[in-house]
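anyone seen this seq b4? input:
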Amino acid sequence: MTLFADLHLHSKYARATSINMDLEHITRGARDKGLGLVGTGDFTHPTWFKELKSKLEESPEGSGFFSLKGERGAPKFMLQVEVATFKSTPKKVRKVHHVICVSSFDEAQQLNDLYSKWGNLAADGRPMFGNRPCAELVEKTKQLCPKAVVFPAHSWTPWFGVFGSESGFDSLEEAYEDQVKHVFCYETGMSADPGMCWRLSKLDSFTPVSFSDSHSFWPWRLGRECNAFSDEVSSFDDLWTAVKKKDSKKFLFTVETDPAYGKYHWDGHRNCNFSCSPAESRKLKGICPVCKRPLTIGVEYRVEQLADRPEGFVPKGAIPFKKLLPLHELLATVYCTSLSSKKVMTEGTRLMNEFSSELNVLLEASRETLLKTTDEKIVDAILLNREAKIKVKPGFDGEYGVPQLPQEALLCEKPAEEKPRTSQQIRQKSLGDW
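predicted toks r here
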């Protein structure tokens, strides 16, 4: 049985996160998705840490995995947090987000004691550490907790990715300096996939991993990117050893959304409703034709800046990946409606119940079985998705990409071209945003 793991998410104590991101809702969402292991998120937040200690128990003892007390079976939890470091340099202010995973509450407490000297842990589930270089974070963390795993989060996003166009570095060695010896993996983020990262030979010694960075328990967010492990992986040490060694017998593949679905794939300006490819951006010299200000440079452009290999290169021993859009995105596209519409929610829930989980629907269910359960056009979309054949209008500057299907594949009349949104509409959040 495959163990699907999503080890980067947030609790209700992080900013811009659903108030329902508690252990009970995360458990429900993980079961719907088909995840066997999820991160707790935010173990540095004092209130959340108390809740984790009161509601979780190690299961089995010594594994570094935790379960809700009184609950049997999936999902299990791993203690995890995302932190932000800021450091002014002659070139720019370096702003980098990092994920940290530990195997015990004792380790988490030791790190909380240290980090509380660096910043206000109660202010946000994702604490911010000013005047703190990446290398110092890793060095001090590993000195206190040698088993702790530290890696860069959403590595390519413009403002807080280690390779980001706005505040990042050109290599992991530049970012983590002499402490790069303790960093063995990096999170690709939604706007990139391993195939894009393989174009950089300097990343060959590191393992790409993929997690959701979810701010809600909805199945189109939680587990939208995750890693697949064999059932031989039954502990914290097993999992991270498999990642470090790129053990293809234990670390089977990563699940990725199409990079174009990510919010920072192309260059553009959200408020100007303008986006463009890297080639077009270069012609424009990085200037928005609408407002005449510099564009937000996206991930595809940044990868091309740093790449020393052609598209399609696959390093020896690389862990494979599968591209999948979330089920509810497929349904919303086929029905020409929103992610949180009653029609999408009802059909999504029915399919997840019928096949035990969303990942079973997306990866395993046969055409014949699906046809007995839902409309043929939905079946076609699921199978096209499985083959990574659904086109996506690229996301940009914080705007998600949009899956696109031809009219004959839809169960509706295709809506007219959307008008540019007002700034008030852009600020407003809907259920789908969480």
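The first strand starts at residue 3 and ends at 6. The chain has two domains: 3-261, 327-427. kinda curious what u guys think
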